[in-house]
TrEMBL record, chain A:
GO terms for molecular function: 2 iron, 2 sulfur cluster binding; 4 iron, 4 sulfur cluster binding; formate dehydrogenase (NAD+) activity; metal ion binding; molybdopterin cofactor binding; NADH dehydrogenase activity. PANTHER family: FORMATE DEHYDROGENASE H, RESPIRATORY NITRATE REDUCTASE. This is Formate dehydrogenase subunit alpha. Residues 96-135 form the 4Fe-4S His(Cys)3-ligated-type domain. In the C-terminal section; belongs to the prokaryotic molybdopterin-containing oxidoreductase family. PROSITE patterns: 2FE2S_FER_2 (PS51085), 4FE4S_FER_1 (PS00198), 4FE4S_FER_2 (PS51379), 4FE4S_HC3 (PS51839), 4FE4S_MOW_BIS_MGD (PS51669). It holds the Pfam family Molybdop_Fe4S4. It comes from Croceicoccus ponticola. Residues 238-294 form the 4Fe-4S Mo/W bis-MGD-type domain. One of its GO terms (cellular component) is oxidoreductase complex.
TrEMBL record, chain B:
It comes from Croceicoccus ponticola. This is NADH-quinone oxidoreductase subunit E. The keyword Ribonucleoprotein does not apply. InterPro entries: NADP_DH_HndA-like, NuoE_N, Thioredoxin-like_sf. Keywords: Iron, Iron-sulfur, Metal-binding. One of its GO terms (molecular function) is iron-sulfur cluster binding.
């Protein structure tokens, strides 16, 4: 037993439904039509030697090792490129084949270094395996001739090394980069004997190349030519555990490969239904934060935030926290207490935090970070369709003909899904690619990057999403491009007719709205026509839609567009919110909002409340509680005094940093439960160390409603899984919780939540994942929703009047700032900044159009002061025409920059989701940090002092 | 980079434009260097790796300018059988540093080898004197 690689069938599975029967080595078997002989043999446990084939990429037929004999066929065809046929009789191991294969192997080995014993791939090398399989005993060619030894290794990538000496130029890496990742960063330089793998031109190494460090090449490499540096350091793994990535909302499944308690590498799991065996630089490599020296593993307390921290034992920390909470509750009432759940934590942990707040603190003052990202998605899709969730699975994109991306940058923020989308956009096997429409103020990579070119890019003025979508609807309705049959069968007709009248008004024509949106009317018209008439139309969107004063309106405008064109209820279409964090969907599902129990049921609904009251044995408040921003306001007013924050850094991630700081500073008890002393912890009185996703059991729910198991691969460095810490606190508050394992919490969730009714830990372990709803109607879950009708009955069109934001440019603040993410960093960067990912992106940069830069005397790389009506910060400028004149862009990954010092407290009218994406700013040359930055740096330094006293 | 932009524009809309573009760049600029590869990749919406893979595959595309005249001598099997190897030392001596001798494999005139090519002109039935003369005149 011990470590085994995931089986490799050599060539990809065939999607055919017709099956073919053949005989391989005397054994009869049936496989789908289109399967290769190699794959067919592997399915019955056969092992045809191979070097250039692996099942993540198409067969290539170059290594000539997988030759077989087929009755009635001349010669010895390559099994990887030979499809099965009915009645075929194949022999894979004959003396003739052995001789041929040995001959081929001799050539490979004739100039391969024979340092197997000291090689990092020893016993994990397909070349070694192949040599053993063919019975290689001697190499006749000697090692004196021309060879490839002594070449310089390329160590430029922080996570993997390229050793050309070990390379057999099978080109699996090149093809994986092309087919799986779609970056095409690798090539074969030269030809014949002098062929070698090259990452771009001769001036490039792996780091300077177009490589995005997704790891597909490393996974594809049969030898140690491309190898994780962590394997070189720690050695071959000895066991593996399948678990779910804790970065973005794609929810990739990985094998965590271990040596004892040491994680050696994360390898994407080919059976993962969200990622289909692919990964990105974050999930694949950026896990080093788990053991970073900054990680806090001991609980700490202090009486006031100007004191240094004092390390204490768990018992003292929990008792201290509970006492403070109880005192505040006694003095100021239940509604002075609240909590924030995290989209970074598991469903079970999130569920317990809201249970603690509602049932233990006694108020509904619970909110979650989805407030500041996808709360408008919940509101908008529930209003129009009846469910607060995306309508499709990721596989759906393979059936799309027109893809509309609005306010999302998938290649940076959801890279693994982006690779699948790009594969569909490129087209495959003679099937033409899907057409792409991008609506984004910035020229994101999808607009134009190798082999991808958007049919239409609508570079709108930030804040005008609703106007653009209404103008598209205007074109579709007035030009008669709606799907009348779908609308009449599936939607409320009165509401549709109201909406159709509204959008048809001339004032919503692209020509009239051009003055507002700055999108050329002809381009917008063409995009609208393409979306309505181009076949299966799918809409993918992100925070560029939701984080606006009209976020909910935009979500509903998207839903309107999908319904009007009949693009709901089958594969290839739909409305797809790309969730930012790994468990945004789950955190929302689990009742993290102040007005909703799990499954999106309002707290004022007596029947639902009774259900929870009976199950939990407590009395629950029927009034919705405070949202995050209201909690902070109330804290400043003195009516909100204590907060328990699990796994979220509101100081860095929430808008208007100074206001957040003011609110936190006003509270009597701030409990931060996190891996690191994050920015919020500067204002905390109790610090409860958290556990990483590698240290806990539970479930995450990804952007496609897929509930996936998270498994504990090592013991928590802090001693407890996060839900256990919440349970300790709950019991210290007088509750009597006795969960022994996360699966028991999941059982409670399923018991109390109709959409989760059929979910159990065991079922998830057996099936790998389930997409909710899982109930009597959908016993195995629902990959595509609203198939036979909308969840709410009839689809509901909502009139979406464009209302400009109150955040306006003017003479003092003439530019519009919008914010976003970059590939290598994740959210506030708490994890990724503590990994080598900072190699690619060590600081936040301000993207600015050359004209704007020139007008201000700013050069590329120069320091600039970015100021708004709310605050100011400094950062360096990147001059680029990716952004339009008048628009600037930055990321928010680094606390030194604190981009949210400048963002405002304007927010979505329906859900208070902050308007991060539109801030009027001015940018001027600068020679140093602002006063805020210096003051904040001082505060951080003071606030992070720890007196290391022995714990009791 | 005006010239490369011009050359690429000349082939705009053509199916499979990369090779014709590379030929023109080699002919007009004397080399397809890293900067040219990068610019062509950008204009054709390809990656640098893809362009470099093609450029490095063909010996006709030079990474650096080389102003020397070139004599291509076939040293494939047929010409070897007809004695080309014996002519090489003399040709190289004649070339010195002034002329570049490139080895090619087959100019398609196997029955009349040894063969060489200068520009688009083919020369057959070469002996030492003829080849040396060719090199000296190149």
């Amino acid at each position: 037993m011990g470590y085994e690689k995931q089986p490799d069938f050599g060539t990809p599975a065939s999607g055919a439904t017709v099956s073919v029967t053949l005989t391989i080595d005397g054994r009869e078997l049936s496989v789908p039509e289109g399967t290769s002989v190699m794959r067919a043999a592997a399915t019955i446990g056969g092992d045809i030697p191979k070097l250039c084939a692996t099942d993540m990429i198409k067969s290539f037929g170059s290594c000539r090792l997988c030759l077989v004999e087929v009755d009635g066929m001349r010669g010895t065809p390559a099994s990887c490129t030979t499809p099965v046929t009915d009645g075929m009789v194949v022999r894979t191991q004959t003396p003739r084949l052995e001789k041929l294969r040995r001959g081929v192997m001799e050539l490979y080995i004739s100039h391969h270094p024979l340092d197997c014993l000291t090689c990092s791939a020893n016993n994990d090398c397909e070349l070694q395996d192949a040599a053993a399989d063919v019975g290689l005993r001697d190499v006749r060619y000697g090692y004196d001739g021309a060879h490839h030894l002594g070449q310089k290794p390329d160590l430029s990538n922080p996570y993997f090394a390229f050793e050309p000496d070990k390379c057999i130029v099978c080109s699996r890496c090149v093809r994986a980069c092309d087919e799986v990742q779609g970056t095409l960063a690798l090539t074969v330089d030269g030809r014949g004997f002098s062929s070698k793998i090259s990452a771009g031109t001769t001036a490039d190494d792996f780091l300077s190349s177009e490589c995005v460090s997704c790891g597909a090449c490393v996974q594809a490499c049969p030898t140690s030519a491309l190898m994780e540096k962590s394997v070189k350091e720690h050695g071959k793994p000895e066991r593996s555990v399948v678990t779910t990535c804790a970065y973005c909302g794609v929810g990739c499944t990985f094998r965590a490969e271990m040596r004892g308690e040491q994680l050696v590498r994360m390898v994407p799991w080919k059976d993962g239904k969200a990622n289909r065996g692919h990964s990105c630089v974050k999930g694949r490599f950026a896990w080093g934060y788990a053991n970073h020296k900054d990680r806090i593993t001991s609980p700490m307390i202090r009486n006031s935030i100007d004191q240094p921290w004092r390390e204490v034992g768990w018992a003292e920390a929990i008792a201290h926290a509970a006492d403070r909470l109880k005192n505040i509750r006694d003095q100021y009432g239940s509604r002075a207490l609240g909590g924030i759940t995290s989209s970074r934590c598991t469903n079970e942990e999130t569920f317990l935090v809201q249970k603690l707040v509602r049932g233990g603190f006694g108020s509904n003052n619970v909110d979650t970070c989805a407030r500041v990202c996808h709360s408008p998605t919940g509101y908008g899709l529930k209003t129009t369709f009846g469910t607060s969730a995306g309508t499709q699975d990721f596989d759906s994109v393979e059936h799309s003909d027109v893809i509309l991306v609005i306010g999302a940058n998938p290649t940076d923020a959801h890279p693994v899904f982006a690779s699948r989308m790009k594969r569909r956009l490129r087209g495959q096997d003679g099937r033409p690619g899907a057409k792409l429409i991008v609506i984004d103020p910035r020229r994101i990579d999808l607009v134009r990057s190798p082999h991808i070119e958007a049919a239409h890019h609508l570079p709108l003025q930030p804040g005008t999403n609703v106007a653009v979508l209404t103008a598209m609807a205007h074109v579709i309705v007035t030009e008669g491009l709606t799907d009348e049959a779908f609308i009449h069968e599936r939607c409320e007709i009165d509401a549709y007719e109201d909406w159709a009248r509204f959008v048809s008004d001339e004032k919503h024509s692209p020509e009239v709205l051009e003055a507002v949106t700055r999108v050329p009317a002809t381009e917008l018209r063409a995009a609208a026509r393409l979306f309505a008439t181009g076949g299966n139309g799918a809409i993918y969107y992100g925070l560029g839609v939701t984080e606006h004063s009209q976020g909910s309106s935009t979500v509903m405008a998207i839903a309107n567009l999908a319904m009007a064109t009949g693009n709901i209820g089958r594969p290839g279409v739909g409305v797809n919110p790309l969730r930012g964090q790994n468990n945004v969907q789950g955190a929302c599902d689990m009742g993290s909002f102040p007005h909703e129990f799990s499954g999106y049921r309002h707290v004022s609904d007596t029947e639902t409340r009774n259900l929870f009251e009976t199950d939990w044995g407590v009395t629950l408040d029927a009034e919705p509680g405070l949202r995050i921003n209201n909690m902070l306001d109330a804290a400043v007013d003195g009516t909100f005094r204590a907060i328990y924050i699990q796994g979220e850094d509101i100081l860095q991630s929430d808008p208007d940093t100074k206001h957040v700081a003011e609110g936190l500073a006003a509270m009597d008890c701030v409990i931060v439960h996190d891996l690191f002393l994050n920015e919020t912890a500067n204002y905390a009185h109790v610090f409860l160390p958290g556990s990483t996703f590698l240290e806990k059991d539970g479930t995450f729910t990804n952007a496609e409603r897929r509930i996936q198991p998270v498994r504990r691969v090592m013991d928590p460095a802090n001693g407890y899984e996060d839900w256990e810490v919440t349970q300790l606190l709950a019991n210290a508050m007088g509750l009597d919780w006795n969960y022994g394992h996360a699966s028991e919490i999941l059982a409670e969730i399923a018991r109390l939540t109709p959409t989760f009714a059929g979910v159990t830990w065991q079922r998830l372990c057996d099936a790998g994942s389930l997409q909710w709803p899982v109930n009597d109607q959908f016993p195995d879950g629902a990959p595509v929703m609203h198939v036979d009708g909308f969840v709410r009955g009839k689809g509901h069109f909502v009139v979406t009047e464009y209302v400009p934001t109150d955040e306006k440019t003017g003479p003092r603040f003439p530019l519009l700032l919008t914010t976003g993410r970059i590939l290598t960093h994740y959210n506030v960067g708490a994890q990724t900044r503590r990994t080598e990912n900072s190699t690619w992106h060590p600081e936040d940069l301000l993207e600015m159009h050359p004209t704007d830069a020139e007008n201000r005397g700013l050069a590329d790389g120069g320091w600039a002061k970015l100021s708004s009506r709310k605050g100011e910060t400094t950062l360096r400028v990147k001059v680029t025409d990716r952004v339009a004149p008048g628009v600037v862009y930055t990321t928010f990954h680094h606390p030194e920059t604190q981009a949210n010092v400048v963002t405002t407290d304007y927010s979505d009218w329906a859900t208070n989701c902050p308007e991060y994406k539109v801030t009027a700013v001015q940018v001027m040359p600068s020679n140093g940090p602002t006063d805020w930055q210096e003051d904040y740096a001082d505060l951080t330094e003071r606030s992070r002092r720890i007196n290391h006293e022995p714990a009791e | 980079m005006k010239t490369i932009d011009d050359i690429v524009a000349r082939h705009a809309g053509r199916e499979g434009p990369l090779l014709p573009i590379l030929h023109d760049v080699q002919a007009e600029l004397g080399a397809v260097d890293t900067a040219a590869e990068t610019r062509i990749a950008h204009l054709l919406n390809l990656t640098r790796a893809e362009v470099h893979g093609v450029v490095s595959f063909y010996h006709d595309f030079r990474p650096e300018r080389d102003p020397r005249p070139v004599v291509q001598v076939c040293r494939a099997e047929a010409c070897q059988a007809r004695g080309v190897e014996a002519l090489i030392p003399a040709a190289e001596a004649a070339a010195g540093g002034r002329v570049r001798i490139d080895t090619v494999y087959c100019l398609g005139l196997c029955s009349v080898g040894p063969n060489a090519r200068i520009g688009d002109d083919l020369h057959a039935r070469l002996d030492e004197a003829a080849l040396t003369a060719l090199v000296e005149r190149a």
